[in-house]
Write a structure and sequence with these properties.
Elements: E1 6-9, H1 19-33, H2 39-44, H3 50-58, H4 65-83, H5 95-104, E2 108-112, H6 118-124, E3 133-135, H7 148-157, E4 164-168, H8 171-180, E5 183-187, E6 197-199, H9 207-214
Helix pairs in contact: 1-4
Amino acid sequence: MVEIKAFIFDLDGVLTDTAEYHYQAWQRLADAEGIPFSREENDAMRGLARRDSLNVLLKGREIDEATAQAWMVRKNDYYVALLSKISPDDLLPGVGDFLAAAKADGLKLGVGSASKNARPALEKLNILSLFDAVGDGYSVVHGKPSPDLFVWVAGRLGINPAQGVVFEDAAAGIQAAKRGGFYTVGLGDAVGEGATIRLPNLGGMRPREILARLV
């Protein structure tokens, strides 16, 4: 039996929920450029890298790469301004206790987020110091649903993927983790049916309960 040595967490929708900030930033860009944009399209961006998210927004509309890069910078500027508001009060239910218990149980902790703002967000949430490795939008070339980001984090943690559990709220993230050979815990309704375990959130959960259900 493989021993689980580490938990790896997505950021948005797992540790905190900045989805509304992403929506507002993309909506502001869409409004400025006269592109229709809905919350359903924003939901389809869950777990995707920024360039892939822009493709969702564009819906097949052609723009040159220089324009695409400029638009992504604008969106990020809007998002970062909104992100400045977050604090430890914005941790999702049960997250603080769950992370503390996992550390106490001797598990290594990592973050695997497509966001290029993962580290600033973790700092504002006052939990950056809990993590042994942080993978973000700068860490790998191929984002989710490629497994590269989670494999990168596993390497920094010094584990094999089979020794790690990935916590995700997006179908693309679950797909990426499964492709990488990790156990998966899907949180919320957007993860689909592929996760090893599905939970509404981490509220009231203990790491040992997760491990007991996996192995």
